[in-house]
Known about the structure:
Layout: H1 9-21, H2 24-31, H3 35-49, E1 54-56, E2 61-63, H4 65-74, H5 78-89, E3 97-103, H6 105-122, E4 126-132, H7 139-142, E5 146-151, E6 159-173, H8 175-181, E7 194-198, H9 203-207, E8 217-222, H10 225-233, E9 239-242, H11 247-252, E10 256-258, E11 264-274, H12 281-302
Parallel strand pairs: 3-4, 3-5, 7-8
Antiparallel strand pairs: 1-2, 5-11, 6-9, 6-10, 6-11
Helix pairs in contact: 1-2, 1-3, 2-3
Amino acid sequence: MVPLGRMLLDEIEAFVNVVDAGSFTLAAKKLGVPKSTLSRAISRLEDATRVRLLSRSTRTLALTEPGERFYAQVGPHVGGLRDAMTLLGDAEEEPQGSLRVTMPVDIGEGLLGEIIARFLCRYPKVEVEVDVSARTVNLVEEGFDVAIRASQKLKDSSLIARKLATTALHLFAAPTYLARRGTPRSFNELSGHDAVLPSHSGFQSLIARPSVRFPARARLHAADFSFVRQAVRAGAGIGPLPSFFAREDLETGKLVRVLPDWSRQAGTLYVVYPGQKHVPKKVIAFRDFVIEHFAKIRKDVEGD
């Protein structure tokens, strides 16, 4: 068998992409290359190893036993190896150019502005255009380089996602509201209070336990946490907010945390970018910078 070091990275990467996609057709579409290119690359890999890695027919594609072992070893690392080689290839070249970033309103207003400002200081040749939107942007079709997304599950397998943190929700109220209505001491005591809740589907199951409804009366629903924060701060009721989103208001006394032992996991934050053969250096730099900074503030994001 030929040692791994003598194999070409392109062939290994083609193999991993085909396995990840489940077919030559889907992998070729994702990479923007003909199916024949991937087929020849895997044939060269099998010739070099003298091992059959894939069982192919007109309708099915399956890993052989050696193929499964090989994929388990190289699959998780091939993307990082490609990035590392890209960085080595242009080690003297700074990240530069225009970087288009999209993110939800809540994330943009509550956390990312400060991080992006620091990113610009570190990389003076990069210009950042930020789209703050409630909709899910199609990165490839709309020409975006990278996204920050909050989700319980990412659906688009053509994108590469790196986890940043798990977001936590806590309950908050304005001091004026609590002075007027009193402070609840237990979850059941919320039944005597007004609530400000996000209106997106599935939120009730997120903040309550199975078969137990959130007891506070929802007098106001809002499309995003930005409006929930404004309404709660104005005294409209008790509302759930991501811990990082309420940090500044807690420090200034505009909000008070209610039921400190209550919290819920709201989803996961990811940095997401299109899967492609050569990831631009500006995208790699932004991805690594955001991951680095979330590691420092993870307690703030994930809560107590």
